[in-house]
Amino acid sequence: MTGLSRFVSIAAVALVAAGATACSDDGNKIERATGPSGDRSRGDVRTGLGGRTQEQGTLFGPGGLFGSKSEKKDDLGGGSGVAVNAYLWRASLDTINFIPLVSADPFGGVIITDWYTPSETPNERMKVQVTILDRELRADGVRVSVFKQQTSPRGGNWVDAQVDPRTNIDIENAILTRARQLRIAGGS
């Protein structure tokens, strides 16, 4: 079984288990919640979830999958619902916006571009991977990896080429500068 099919199988089992748990009644009763004046205007609310109503229950911990409103206000990332710092995420997208994207995963914090050939150097192409490592806006919260290929003299096939290590650092610094600008503009 390949790694991807194993992951898909495990994810499917987890989803079925979560669905079965969510659908089971476990003896919980449906009650009518009463408003401040004693009326029953709020509708049905499931109780028996450890003393909490279903409205207060959470998915994957306090605040739910995307966090509570109060957590979003306190979040250093600007409360966008992403699992990484939103300023670094937005700054990364802004910085490499001239390269087409292949993948952008805000929960994992990984952005992968397609191969890009600058018009100045048609025999070279590059690909960029940005990884956001933290929920906080920190200098070590982003890592950039640049991959470069050149056409070979024989055959014209693309072959891997050495990337100047300074290139990665320059892109990281550009992302951090843009993230700081976004944070200042956001009023935080």
TrEMBL record:
Q: Give the span(s) annotated as Disordered.
A: 26-54
Signal sequence annotation: 1-22
Q: What are the alphabetically sorted keywords of the record? A: Signal
Q: Which InterPro entries match?
A: DUF3576
**Presence of keyword Signal:** yes
Q: What is this protein called?
A: DUF3576 domain-containing protein
Q: Which organism is it from?
A: Reyranella humidisoli
